[in-house]
Structures are given as structure tokens and as C-alpha cells.
Amino acid sequence: MRVLRNPLIFCLIISVLICSFADADSLINVPLNPNLSDFNRETYRFVHRLLNKRVLPGIRRGSLPLTRKQVVSYLLEVHRKQENGEIELSTIDQARLNALLAFYREAREFPKLATENGATATTETQSNGRLHVMTMAGEDYRFSFDLRASQQTITHLVDNISEEQPVEGNMFVTTIYPHLYGQVRETFAFTTDIAHRFVYGEIFEDFFPDETKIRQLEGNLKNRTAINGYMKFNLPWFELQLGQETLQWGPGYHDSLLISKNPLAMDMIKFQATYDPVTFTAFTGILEDMAEDINDKYISGHRVEGYFWNRFGFGLSEVVVYGSRFEPGYLNPVNIYLINEQPISRADGRVPGSGDNVLMSVDMRLRPIDNFEIYGELMVDDGNPAANFKHWDTKFGILGGIYLTDPFGIPDTDFQAEYAFINQYAYTHVNPVNVYKHFTTPIGHKIGSDADNLWLELRRRWTDKLETVFGYELERHGTGDIDKEHPPDAPKDDVWTPLSGITQSEHRLSVGANWVIIGRYSIYAEWTRVWRRNLGNRLDVHENANEIEAKFISRIPW
For the whole model, what pTM was predicted? Predict the structure, then answer.
């Protein structure tokens, strides 16, 4: 990593790390990106369901990802309560619990041997576990290589168009997912998780927009590659992680305002410490930008989150984006960026204009009764909303939602509703290097600036394997954009406008079904009816379409 160019500092860090010892079952994180792994989405959804039913105590669900160790501890706690008669799960939830416990079996058994000491196995033979192509295990280590493959079909059919020719047809995606990971003793772990895609047919550019392109191999067959890879060390007081990873901060289930799982994984140094009931996270990472004149761009952030009385969670986060130089002052994990940004950035002759880009957020979630959660997040990018709410430099976003499990007594059902609004100039910056994005994707909510989003979803499980999903989503965009800063010649007392100019809107009504055998394979299919109005912020340019998506993913060997 570029932030560790000094070999002496790097050697000192490694020397400290390998001398440290602490207890751990599995340090590897459960990935957040569903396009990079398998069964992680089922894991998080089930943990969230257990938490909302209050069969689990309060956990730091606003500082993701979770580790396998944490997931296993939550599942085992629920299993113990079920065995002791303290709680009662539905038959389907009990089956899902057992399946996930089997899938994460190695995490709770480490360092127990999977094979004879020092031996190598070609496949894992347990009928209900994590399948490996190869695994090596000894008294104090385990190394594994997993392989998965998926086939995905995406169909766009446009039946009503104004003016221009629609983009429609069938896109096919064949993906290979090699995964190499391991753990030595109880202090060190590593993982490299890769998704290499072969994309063919009609190429829809809004899929996998920032993933690596291997242009030498491209013709009618396109290549896209994403990767998460890091090392993690478990120290006596905190965990230290070096490498590429995706984070998500905040209470939102559909998306987050400050740090979301939408961008590609970024190179980072991260540490995290938990002293119940509080978790503290800090990181510094490298950002990338498609502009040719932006070469050095960084992000630093920290978050403190607490969960109290098993019903109320609270989080406070702060992030700074800066460029044109690396700033050691932001490495301090307990620094207050809002205060220190002034002397740090403006004292540096390479930082023109308004300095670096500092954003903050505060969030909460409240469970007044079992099975019902209310949550919200406020993000402030700049300005002072309390002093002058309508001034153009008041940049902010809001997010709120509800989550109901088993609503109206319907078992094995989840209902979620979430709304987000981001005003006209939030995420933008007068200095292009400080715009709040990684490659072309906002680091925060996917809708970007000058937009809002309403998301509703109803999930119903009929068996432990079969689930149906009904969804509705409305997304609206004004003429603002994350790369469109406030005009420099505009009046000083200019105001921001909600969904400025001609508003583009998109309504999506979807029906889908999942068939999942955890640890083996999953099948997903969805039909979506789409209504787009004022396409491209052009008046009376409309489009109606059907979108059909089907995906099959399987572990190898099956």
C-alpha cells in the first residue's frame, strides 16, 4: 500500500504484530458485497431478523462488516437460548439457524483439526458445511482454497419510448470466484476473495461500472474483476486490518449516507476495538478517480457506536476526503477532523480553495417493542443547517426507516421501508479531488446528490430454502450531480433547490424468488416493471420497460 512506503515503519509494525497474542475463533470478515461472495446476504439478513425479534441482545450492526467469529457467537447464543427454553423459534428459523451454524462450523471449531495433523485434503467431506477444493490444517493453522461459479442473465425489454432508441436485449455474465484464506494461531488471518466475470451479449454499462477491465482480452467478450484481499491481526486491545475491504456505517438496510457498501473495495488501514457496549472504528484509505489529473486522493474516517438497554443504538461518525498530498495528521484515530481540517489543509500550500472535505453523521435505532425497529441518520457535509437551512452551502442528507418482523402475526415474514433524501450540493466540492466518490461511485448513498429514494420490501419464507420477495422503489433525480459544484459566479446568498430543475423519476415494481441451500448453491429470479419519466432530465421523454434477472451460484465441488 502507498501509505506504507517506508520499509522501516512497515517492518516495525509487523514485528509488533507477530509478537501479539489474543483469543479469536475466526478473524475473517463476512463480506458485504453480494456480487463478490455467496451466502453473506443470507447471513446478514438472518442476524438482523434475530436482532429485531430481540432473541439477540444489541449488537453493532451499524459498523459493518461483522467477523465470522461474531456471527458464530450470535448464532450459538440463540441456539443456547432455544435449548434452554428461553426463546421459541419458528420451524423455518430453526432450520436456517442450523444451516448457518453448519456453514460457519470451522469458525467455531478453530483450531480443531479438519484433517490429520499437517495433512492436505482435496475436499471437505462433511455433508453440512463449507466445501473446499483444498484445505490444509494443523494444530495452530488452517489454509483453505474455495471455488464458486455463477451464471447470470439480465434482460431489458423496452415497450414504450420517446424519441431515442432504447438499450435493450440480453446480457450474460459468467463468473468464477476463487477464494484463498487462512488463519495462523489465533492472532493472524488473511483472505483474498476474487470475482472474475465474463460478460457477453448486449452489454449494459450500468452493471459493474468500476470493476477492473482486462482490455487485452476484450472483444465481444468483456472481462470485469473485483477483489477483496487483506491481512488481519488480533492485538490485545484492538484488531488491525491491512488491505482491500468494503465498509458500511449507519443504520440503513437498503443503503447508507456516509459510508456504504456500493463502491469497490478500497486499500486501507483499519482498526477496530469493542469495549461493551461501545465499538470504535477508524480507517485511512486510498481513493481512485477517473480524472487524469487526479492521482493522489485519500479518505480517513472514524466511528463510535453504542447499543444500550438492548433497545437503543446510537452512532457518531466523521470522515474527511483530501488529495494532492498524503496527510499524516488525519492518521490519528481520535482526531476531530472538523477542528483540525482548518489548520491542516489551509496551512498546506498545495490545498487551494476551501480545504479538505469533511462530512459527519449521527444515527440512531430504537426498538420500542419486539419485532419493530425505527431508525434514522442525518449526514451533514457542510454549512450550518440550524443557522441557515436554505443557503446553498448547507449540504446534508437524511435517511429513515422501519423494520417489522412477522408483521400482523404472519410468521417468517419481514417488511422494511426506507426513505433517503440528499440535497442539491451534498457530496460535491469546489476542489474536484475532494468530491465524495471512489472511481465513479458515491462513497455514500448510491443515489448521489440532488436525489431521493423510497424503498419498500416484503419478504416471506415458505420453507427454510424458498423465499419470495415483493418490492417497490421510487428514485428521483434533479439536475444536480456529484460532479456539479455550485457555480462560482452564483450569488453569495444563493439557495439550494429540492430536486432542482426537471425531475427525472423511476418507479420499480418487482417480484422475485430465492431458493437457497446454504453451503451448496442458490437460485434467484426476479421480474421488475419499470416506469421512467423525464429520462435524462428531459421533459416528456419517457420509457416503460420489463427487466428480468436470473442467477445461479454454486460452490465447487457441489
Answer: 0.90
